[in-house]
Amino acid sequence: MYTIKEASARSGVGAPLIRAWERRYGVVRPARTTSGYRLYDDATIDVLVTMRALIESGWTASQAARAISAGEVPVEARDAEGRSRAAESLPEAARSAATEHRARTIARFVAAAQSTSPADTEAALDAIFAAGSFEAIVDDLLMPATAALGDAWAAGTLSVAAEHAASAAVGRRLAAVYQAAGVPARPTVLVGLPPGARHELGTLAFAAALRRRGVGVLYLGSDVTVEGWIDVAARTRARAAVVAVVVPADRDGAAAVIAALRALAVPIVAVGGAAAGPQLAPTNGLLVLPGNVVEAAAIIARAVGPRG
């Protein structure tokens, strides 16, 4: 039997979300100690992992809970990495419904941005964040929704001002997630953008995901000078630095930051973002992160180790 903290670590589902699923949907029913503390067995952990897998595939939490409770979706034992293959076993119609729901949720957010209605924008973001844990929605819903804003602007259906307003709303949500994850006594990982780089939503999402893994993160923000990176790295003695490279124009600035961090002998230097790639790693030792926020956070968390 496991405490809720242990169940959270084994399932990858945050403790507050576990309690919410229990309270709202009854999908898990933990035992209780004489003192009233929740206890979870392996079968319950499998249910949590299956719920997480379904939500990550595009289901809402209520849809996933109903399907599990009705026996429409098999609760499968975790694999060696703690994952469930439940989503892969869904009927084609169910997968199609989940995909359509995801598309509608993203379209709702873009439509709210086009309307320039703060209330509609916040309601659309509420729907995105209510679809599951931060780890469940960040790569499947939130980041695609922000990308859809850029697509709408490029298509001429969204003004620059409206795109900035909606992006700012996303930024406020991400900042709240980052702050709620806890302020470290001492930062272990520095995360930020190079000089001149300003597209920071994905970088802030990564910083929040990493902090939620218990890693001490200091988010530096956008357009950080080389001198600024070095000053903070020297003062904090951080074990790792992650430089975001979002567009090709960011590469020259990122290369300068990387060279300076290496000269300072920062143990782990990594790059991530859509424009990161081998061209920034002419020598061994530079870690290039995948585009998936949750996967990238897991890689850095493993790299810095327990002291992170």
Architecture blueprint of SSEs:
Blueprint: H1 4-11, H2 15-25, E1 31-32, E2 38-39, H3 42-56, H4 61-69, H5 92-115, H6 118-129, H7 134-154, H8 160-180, E3 189-192, H9 201-212, E4 217-221, H10 226-236, E5 240-244, H11 251-263, E6 268-272, E7 286-288, H12 293-304
Parallel strand pairs: 3-4, 3-5, 5-6, 6-7
Antiparallel strand pairs: 1-2
Helix pairs in contact: 3-4, 3-7, 5-6, 5-7, 5-8, 7-8, 7-9, 8-9, 9-12, 10-11
Report what the structure shows.
The protein has 308 residues and is of the alpha/beta class. It has three domains: 4-88, Multidrug-efflux Transporter Regulator, Chain: A, Domain 2 (Orthogonal Bundle); 95-179, Orthogonal Bundle (Methyltransferase, Methionine Synthase (B12-binding Domains), Chain A, domain 1), CATH 1.10.1240; 184-304, Cobalamin-binding domain (Rossmann fold, 3-Layer(aba) Sandwich). The chain has twelve helices and seven strands. The chain has helices spanning 4-11, 15-25, 42-56, 61-69, 92-115, 118-129, 134-154, 160-180, 201-212, 226-236, 251-263, 293-304; strands at residues 31-32, 38-39, 189-192, 217-221, 240-244, 268-272, 286-288. Strand 3 (189-192), helix 9 (201-212) and strand 4 form a beta-alpha-beta unit. Helix 3 (42-56) packs parallel to helix 7, helix 5 (92-115) crosses helix 8 (160-180) and helix 9 packs across helix 12 (293-304). The longest helix is centred in the middle third of the chain and has 24 residues, at 92-115. The radius of gyration is 20 Å and the shape is globular. The two termini are 27 Å apart.
